[in-house]
Each structure stands twice: as structure tokens, then as C-alpha cells.
Q: What sequence folds into this?
């Protein structure tokens, strides 16, 4: 069976409280054998950890999302550092800047973003980036941070911005709304994601997105690039594994 990795999936979200096990089982049956579950604030760190402990193939990331910094406390940065130091995570995330949603203090966003980049650098962890209408500003911070890379989730920037992110060691995430840019970027720079339950593909008619949709999303990309789905699966998995701190399954199984 073709194996996929969903590099951005909020399986811990309340939208899945009534059928999380069923949603996970359907994704796994479809070949989505790895799913990265990013946190958004300290209040859901435990839910992310529990989701990953209870569902095979789920991989945690911990961070403070830019849209949640309005309710974050300064000590949450220390909490995040402690949590990452004592819990295995594939990345710091979801973190970044969002200048699309009105009313979210940009100065506060930048302060929390910079602090989390410092944590990522100190722990040598990659980051999962949320940069909406903020790619140029985010790049300023990333150039200074000198990180080991990561993923620009739901990338929606320009080719120039994409090239700069790639130069800095980042992969670019594409999901249910494949952009023309995804057809021309180097294949090894692309990873796949659903952002479930958000960003539903058009065939869901604005319904709830789930990680089981990933193979169909990949099929769209494969057709646009003149590739087979298997080629896209192999490339996107290799790209994700090259930047994220994903444990080797063979090693893990030997120790379980």
C-alpha cells in the first residue's frame, strides 16, 4: 500500500471529539500512516500528547499559534520550553505570524514568534510555520534565527518567497487548495497536508476535512505534475522526514 504523511492535522480538535477513533482509522486505512498533530496553545498541549499516545502514527508538535497570543501569558514561553524539553516532539509548532485576521496585535505576535524561534534554535528543533499575509516579515525573523529548517504550512506566498524559504531549509506545505506554484516548485521541496478539520478540498463542499482526504489531494498534485501518486507519496514522505524529528518506526518497534 502507498504510505502517506499528513504533515499538518489537528486531530485533537473539538470537531473530532465524537468520532476521533473512526476518523483516524479511516485515514490509516487509506494509507495515511503518519499524521503530525500541532498544538496551538498551552491549553491543548495535553490533548495533543494524549491524541498521539492513543493513535498509531500520530506525531506531536507543540507551539503557540499567532491567533492565540492574545490570550497567552508571558510565562507560556517558559511552559513551552519545559514541555518541549521533557516531551518528544517532531517540531515546534504551530507558530508564526498572521496579518490577515484583524485585531491581533502584530507587535505581540512578533514577540511570541521570536521567543519560540529562540526555543527551536536552543533545542535544535524544526518549526511548523503559519505565515498568512506575513511571509516577508516572517522571513526577516527566520534569517536571523538560523534554524535547522521546518515546514511552511499552507504556503500561499510568491515564488520568490518560496525560493527563500527553501534556501533557509524549509519545505512548503500544500493541501486541499493546490496552487499553481505547487506545479513548478522542486518536487523535493513539497510536503502534503490537510489542516483537518480546516481547509476542506472543493469536493467536500465546505464540509469537515479529515486526514483521509490526503491521497485524493495528492492525486490532484500528481496529475498536475504528470506523476504517479506513488511518486508523489515517496517524494513528500522523504521531504517531511528530512526536516521533522520523526522517530524511525523500525527502531521504535524494537523497543516497544
A:
Amino acid at each position: 500500500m502507498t504510505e502517506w504523511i499528513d504533515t499538518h492535522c489537528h486531530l485533537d480538535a473539538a470537531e473530532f471529539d465524537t468520532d476521533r477513533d473512526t476518523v483516524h482509522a479511516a485515514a490509516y486505512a487509506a494509507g495515511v500512516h503518519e499524521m503530525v498533530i500541532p498544538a496551538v496553545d498551552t491549553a491543548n498541549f495535553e490533548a495533543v500528547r494524549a491524541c498521539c499516545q492513543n493513535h498509531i502514527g500520530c506525531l506531536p508538535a507543540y507551539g503557540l499559534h499567532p491567533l492565540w497570543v492574545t490570550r497567552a501569558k508571558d510565562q507560556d514561553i517558559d511552559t513551552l520550553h519545559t514541555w518541549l524539553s521533557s516531551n518528544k516532539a517532531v517540531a515546534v509548532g504551530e507558530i508564526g505570524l498572521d496579518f490577515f485576521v484583524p485585531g491581533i496585535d502584530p507587535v505581540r505576535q512578533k514577540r511570541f514568534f521570536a521567543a519560540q524561534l529562540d526555543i527551536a534554535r536552543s533545542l535544535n528543533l524544526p518549526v511548523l510555520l503559519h505565515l498568512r499575509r506575513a511571509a516577508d516579515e516572517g522571513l526577516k525573523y527566520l534569517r536571523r534565527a538560523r534554524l535547522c529548517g521546518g515546514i511552511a504550512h499552507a504556503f500561499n506566498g510568491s515564488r520568490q518567497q518560496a525560493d527563500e524559504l527553501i534556501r533557509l531549509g524549509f519545505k512548503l506545505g500544500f493541501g486541499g487548495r493546490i496552487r499553481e506554484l505547487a506545479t513548478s516548485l522542486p518536487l523535493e521541496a513539497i510536503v502534503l497536508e490537510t489542516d483537518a478539520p480546516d481547509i476542506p478540498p472543493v469536493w467536500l463542499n465546505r464540509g469537515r476535512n479529515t486526514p483521509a482526504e490526503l491521497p485524493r489531494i495528492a492525486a490532484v498534485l500528481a496529475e498536475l505534475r504528470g506523476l504517479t501518486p506513488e511518486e508523489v507519496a515517496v517524494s513528500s514522505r522523504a521531504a517531511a522526514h528530512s526536516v521533522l524529528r520523526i522517530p524511525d518506526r523500525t527502531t521504535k518497534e524494537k523497543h516497544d
